[in-house]
Amino acid sequence: MSVTSSPLKAAAIQMASGTNVNANLLTIEKLLEEAARQGATLAVLPENFAYLGASGRDVLPYREVQGDGPLQHFLSQIAARLGIWIVGGTIPLEGEDAGRWRAASLVFDAEGREVARYDKQHLFDVTLPDSDEHYSESDAIEPGNEVVVVDSPIGRLGLAVCYDLRFPELFRAMVDRGAEVFALPAAFTAVTGRAHWEVLVRARAIENLAWVIAGAQGGFHVGGRETWGHSMVVDPWGSVLACQERGNGIAIATIDPAFQRATRRSFPCLDHRRLQCAADETE
Is 269 a catalytic residue? Predict the structure, then answer.
């Protein structure tokens, strides 16, 4: 496909998912309809938008095979009905390990065709400081291992998910594959979000002179978990153009390729790099 050079709108979608899949999908549908009404060409959904339970293993009954399943059909159909591109947060897809699942972020074009898949690479196995919160995503999730960048109407789109945000080498690898915009579905905890969310999102934008569209979970969930929210669209200079702080809603802003080109041209830090990543050296 040809990538437009015209400014187009993109939306980061925010919600607080629970364990009722139908209710979650109804909420997402309404938010996507609102994004389309406001002129969004592309929308990024939160991580685990269809189901967020007390543990990762609760998701296993909803695991789908690649290319078939109610969640994939939902994303395909609504993308085609609204005529917008959708980065489908994450949904559980089968992997190689029968006891775990892949946290897959699927991209559907405006005709409802799946055009890309990214499996979350970095898994959130941490105990939060000064807190009794502990997470072990690797117990239930099988990590991916591919860098994914795809052409989209708003530019070359790189895909990452939540905890991936803390690993700048992944984002630099996407830039090396031509990424101009990053899509980041997420579900940051309230503790880590308050401390690090905005500074990390803005840092990935600044150091790569790229747009970031970050759709997040924001609110309270089963088991008492609280997510930070603050879904946002950030420009290549690190400015937050739109932010949905709490509750269901959308953050929408214009992605202007001319602004990015001018910024990269006048401030060419990507051309000034002295070190190459190990992955580049082995190619």
Answer: no
